[in-house]
Amino acid sequence: MEYVNDLRMVMRRWASGVVIVTSAYEGQRHGMTVDSFNSVSIVPPLVTFTLNNNTRTHALVRQSGWVGITMLHAGQIDLSDRFAGRFGDGDRFAGLDTFTMKSGVPFLRGGMAYLEAKVIHQHEMPTSTLFIAEVTAMGKEKDMEPMVYFDRGYHRIDNEHNTFNSE
Questions:
Q1: Any residues with CB less than 8 A from the CB of 136 and at least 6 apart, and which?
Q2: Rounded CA gap, 71 and 73, in Å?
Q3: Is 56 left (phi over 0), alpha (psi -120 to 50) or beta?
Q4: What is the pLDDT of residues 38-77, one digit of tens each?
Q5: Do 106 and 67 form a contact (C-beta atoms < 8 A)?
Q6: Model's pTM, two decimal places?
Q7: Is 55 helix (H, G, I), strand (E, B) or coil?
Q8: Is 63 in a helix, a strand, or coil?
Q9: For domain 16-166, is the CATH number 2.30.110.10?
Q10: Which of 70, 83, 160, 166 has the smallest CB count inside 10 Å?
Q11: Which phi and psi angles does 148 have, rounded to 5°?
């Protein structure tokens, strides 16, 4: 496992968007910030994400088979940090405006876009699980600047000058 630190350093060079993955099962709900999210296919509409096996969100996704994905915009750093567990381990939804679509999984109002998806494949690894899910419902808000995660920090894309700025 000597490569782990080297791989972490290399992967910090990869910029990604930031989403919050949520799920609910038998009255419990939880969510977490994820940057390991990607579109796999438009036809059929598939997305993928990875969750640590020891998280409450992972357990709820496994139990319910459903996920909500809220895509974050550049102004939602506090929300990203909250769902990353940086402010404690209480109810991450406390005081937030949420809504549901078809399956009942919670979404965080104010995001850039939303995807509701049914898990169709799971690939369990030693410490995490790769999920592939089929999108069943979606929504989009007005155009906003995306949140970008790069080199362990949040950044902005300045569309006017085509530059990449640190928060």
A1: 102, 103, 116, 117, 118
A2: 7
A3: alpha
A4: 999 999 999 999 999 999 999 999 999 999 999 999 999 9
A5: no
A6: 0.89
A7: coil
A8: helix
A9: yes
A10: 160
A11: -120, 135
